[in-house]
Here is the input.
Amino acid sequence: MTAIAEKYSRAIGSSHLEWRIDPGAIDVLTAAGLVDDSLGVGLLRLRAEFDSISLMPSARHMIPRLKSAAGVTTRLIALIMIRNAGQRPIDPREIAAKLLDHWLSPQCPSCTGRGMVDHPAAVGGGRCTQIVCGACGGSKRRTLFWKHEEQAFADMIGAEMEAKVDAASRRIRRLLNSA
Here is the structure.
């Protein structure tokens, strides 16, 4: 998480919103409100909300219930439809749901993000050996199980999501530095 994302995350949860000479939570929230890219700021907010519940066992299943999830999902569906423009038969809601789920929690659940798992023969006694995780192939990230043509499209949208978050973070930083 970037420094701006952390500041924004703390500012969202702050109850101490007052104007001061040095930049505080209210300045960060004001700067975020002035950013033109609503999807980028929405994704920053959604990640901050998810991070607050991410240690819960069923956190991934709670994503649709987060406060900013509906708005971000709607904007992401619109982006998917614009970028697709009838070129391929897709379900934008399914792609948006999978992308948000993977973007918020990319860690492989089988190996808990280590890329290695205990060898089944070693469990129950003897020397514990580790083998490459079969679920992620050692990449430490969950797979999305896309059809081949959907995967390239999803990668393009995922890269655009990251670019929008980075652009929103840079804009917030510039606004805070100019204050």
User: Anything to note?
Assistant: The chain has two domains: 3-106+142-178, 108-141.
